[in-house]
Protein 1
Amino acid sequence: MSSNRKSSIVNRQSKIVILGGGESGVGTAILAKQTGFEVFVSDFGKIKEKYKQVLINNEIEWEEEGHSEENILLADVVMKSPGIPDKAPIVQKLLEKGVKVISEIEFAAKYTDATIVGITGSNGKTTTASLVYEILKNGELNVALGGNIGKSFAEQVSELRYENFVLELSSFQLDGIESFAPHIAILTNLSPDHLDRYDYKYENYIASKFRIAMNQTSQDYFIYDADDVEIDKWLSKNTIKSRLLPFSIKKELSQGAFKKNNEIVINIDNNKFNMPISEIAMQGEHNVKNAMAATTVATLLKIRKETIRRSLEGFSGVEHRLEKVLKINNVLYINDSKATNVNATFYALDSMENPAIWIVGGVDKGNNYSELLPLVNEKVKAIICLGVDNKKIIEAFGNIVDTIMETTSMEVAVRTAYKLAERNNTVLLSPACASFDLFENYEDRGRQFKNAVRNL
């Protein structure tokens, strides 16, 4: 890969302020320093020790537990970590002053000529991104995985090592882009999520997701779920310049990916690939779609069919997504902590074959639980609420599930589930909510669940 730097967003020796001293913030700080910026990192909370050490080692100025406004407002450009809402007072002041506020993705993309595969969607983006990365790596491409997953994209760009990037992209990261354009974009699906950040308007959230394609050209590709009503509706009213490659499990398509005779079939300009669904390691309709999207990318990037086949046979999924933990007394414990919205939990409940004790709750992001009612009625024998405020969950399911209990500790939730469970039951952690009331993040929640199960 050529190491030529593209021109900076602003002139050399400009000042960049980075709001948030986490993975994306510190990664951006490293790249910004390397590319000639004066760098200042400011975190309203505490910066983790490991990140602090990186900043100290790189001689980057930082502050924590508050923002020094006069210093921040002198910035030429600001990189805002995705967790910080636009409504935060310091962000509002920057915008009023006309300071450009961007995301790590926007900043870092300026400094690489790599081929970028960007993946967004309400659900399935981590699994799809991990699977794409796995196939490309098995195909011996020089590739890195980043964005909303793993190591910071900006830091990996600073290493000047990669010719390809697979990026999982959240709506918050896409909100902060101006010119970022992945060569291949995937939109896995749409369902209401993070509505608390989008004025409780679903259409605002949808528009945010489609930003992934806004700067693409006719030389680029947009891969999407043709069965998704909201995606279909948006595409009927808006234009995307890139080439559309749909995937579907309901209809046969002339171009793209579809299901036929219990096989996935990919057809792009008469370049065909097919594989029996039974041979794909990840089962379930949503995973068939994830496999279709990933295989479409691999076909575009000319990965050998045998490599694609071997990768799909060997990839069993990601941690915290319908992860089977242990079977105790013929009761299966499943960690689906990554289900932070209603739609993700819908998939989890739908996949239950035995009566379930469902651990649910956390920070509600504007959830509407009504679509879960038929599944809960059919599959769930008891609910354990794990959150600070469980009122909405109790109101939604109180009439259809006899046993609903409240707890604010993972250990107590798992012990309660253990007592309620009978042979051939399943204990499912699938919260349908964010984790920040009781846990650091969904990974912390999932790990605590697994530890509690192992300690039974």
Protein 2
Amino acid sequence: MEHNYKNIIVLGAGESGNGAAILAKQKGLNVFVSDKGQIKDNYKKELTENGIEFEEGRHDEVRVMQADLIIKSPGIPDKAPLVKALRDAGKQIISEIEFGYWYKGTSKIIAITGSNGKSTTTSLLYYLLKNADLNVSMVGNIGVSFAKQVALNPTEWYVMEISSFQLDDIKEFKPEIAVLLNITPDHLDRYDYKFENYIASKFRITRNQNEEDILVLNIDDPEIKNYLEHNPIKSKLIPITMSDQNLTQDEGAFMKDDELHLKYQGEDINISIHDLALKGRHNQYNSMAAGISARVAGIRKEKIRESFSSFEGLEHRLEFVATVRGVDFINDSKGTNLNSVWFALESMKQPVVLILGGQDKGNDYNEIMDLVQEKVRAIVCMGVDNTPIHKAFDSVIKNIVDTASADDAVKAAYALAEKGDVVLLSPGCASFDLFKNYEDRGVQFKQAVREL
């Protein structure tokens, strides 16, 4: 499709906004970046070095309204008054991944979305392709933005982690392979508190796919299953499931007798779960999704086997930190919703001292109640307001302690733990009350463990 836009405004100067601006500049387009907040120093430097004009702390609405194309950062909600005004004026608004797509040439995209496990699956799949010597980059919500990669270092394959926010403003964007891991309630404030709107947003990944394109999806997930029953999808479906009984076709990934099977084009690769570097049931889903996508991308079974056993997991995602006098410490700071906490607890074999809390997005702690009762010895709260946690667990857990820093939380958890226990930081909340972000929280946690 022809794109004759000349005057481009990028709203938001984070990783994705800057990536879009750099690509626009490279293509000789007139681009201006506008950020209502303060732009981080590294991004400001990047804009200056690329000769891109920008403003911060305000939006020059007159100038923004003159644009013939708006590229909106995923963090800016549709409710924002400026976005509403732009839509009312009939302005074309797209996301950075859409803009990157216009210029990607003949490269192929594998795009991964879902409520949980995106980063792990994306990293594992990137590793599988890289190890097989494909010319590949990892972009999107993890690492470099897609548009920036297209501008500065284009590759033949893009393994991309994408959120529902990025999918909300696509028009033509189409991955050759799309992966949908699971759907659980998250970010509902952006979807009028309607779960069905969030589900539809995730399925937008298939919007432009046709019969030649692949959709790898978890058919054990009730929301995914339900959506498929009521909505036609053109893509060729390749299911992943825990039980081969659910596999009604010849292709897909499943678990059987402690073995992971990848069936594609008449070949069945089986790998023992003991040979997988990633442990835990939720990681079996992530491994199935990455493995079957790698098969579709043409990776041979020897390479897949080898990469599965040598892959090292992600920082801040069920990351083993240290054992201190018989107590294991695990950093799952990236677990910012209760579904993540559920997965983390579900994969623990020892009794748990759980560090929980932060900026609560209206959590319903009943979601994890059964696992907490079954596995958790004590809870250490780490947030400015821990009332919701007390309200949920005071009657079922004897020891619940309040702390207001990573250091205090680690000391309190260590004091409550017995030899053979695991101290698990899996907050189930955003980190913005006490920390810059989940990475900062994880780093402070690991530092505190090392100082015990």
